[in-house]
Please model this.
Amino acid sequence: MLKLAAQRNKFLSPDALEIILSDPEPRTFLSNILSAISADTLFIEKNDIVGFLSKNLSEKEIKPVVPKNKRQYDISVIDGTDITGESTCEGSVDDFTRYFLSRYNLIRDIVKRKIGAVMPIETVSSTRWESMDREVRVIGMVSNVTTTKNGHKMLELEDESGSCKVIVMKDKPLINDIIVNDEVIGLIGSPMSKGTLIATDIVRPGVSADPWENSDSVASVAFLSDIHVGSHTFLESRWNNMIKWLRENAKKTDLDYLILPGDVVDGIGIFPGQQEELLIDDIYKQYGKLAERLKDIPDHIKIVLQPGNHDAVRPAEPQPALPKAFAEYFDSNIMLTANPVSLNIEGRNVLTYHGRSIDDWVKSVQQLTYNDPVRIMKEMLERRHLAPMYGLKTALAPEKKDYLVINKKPDIFVTGHVHGAGSVEYKGIRLIAASTWQDQTEYQRMHNFNPEPGVMPIVHLGTGDTVMKHF
Model:
């Protein structure tokens, strides 16, 4: 309907669109309105349609408009968070320079509000300090982290002006702080010598500890990650149990939104020997089968589908939405988005990220494990970045801006990828690890990892109450 109006250079208000969609033949109804409406009218409002009806129908023919579907959906992509159609990078040195400067500038501005006035790092490197007691404040990107032979931690910190060394003493509590390459931090310290600081505190962008504020929304959003259609380990019986539950309960529980955070199919050639684990060895047939399965979900539920590292898009993040060749398989009630993306759902900011960088966190930080993905999500939030470490398993595309920076504190933050299930409240944010619909794979068996499949997390958008529904 909106496209039909746009072809005539007209725009429909939500109320007008609601009336049009309530007609048994909405396309014909809209065509008649567009033919009758003044050429000078740009925005068609409810009153315009009421006026049209009063002129063209007798009084007893005019009936109160009752929408077929009383549910009014309120979901949109937050501006600037979806890379689809916006990718411009070619992988040049200039692209990477621009990319890391974007990250630095975006996160620096957040840190600056917490740390206050700072000096350029060049000043630290070029000054011969008369007093070692002076407090120095800088903001920089960590370019390297090592441990000295004496057990101290040595950082290299850089900004646009230069670089300096920072020593974290082994007898200070700060030595236990997790510091990773390429994160942006504020540092408070004292000069040790020219170009070297002794750290006394690290200031991260973090997220404020604001409580969840209830709203008047009655709707809920559910999450189904890592479906892996096409794999012979796809758990069809659990999936069918979930579909049956949705058909019997979704409407009466106001479950109106469903997000699929990536790895919706198993893909082709994702890892060596994968062909031995495939039930469907054609990528087009995998998406066709997925589309069939999604048609079993009740029609009133709005579905958001984003890619993961098994899907048919570039592996480098941010990943654009599925291309047209696969998008054509899905019904119009399925919204295809990038990975990551931020959605506004009935006034809630929902940050959804497939979670590939969790591999890098586990590999780089001894304290973090696949069995506790929500702890890794907390580390991402504190750094305001989904994948800070460059050059590991998570390929990063050097776009004109860093789409993996968490600009705004989310209300709900969801990841998949590791096939674990969990939920926790953190500083007013609902953190969700969104399970899987695939049984233990051979790779997981080799690494002694036991997934938690067949779990659907559901979050109430009004109250924030979270249920982990097991199937």
Observations:
- Confidence is low (pLDDT under 50) at residues 58-70.
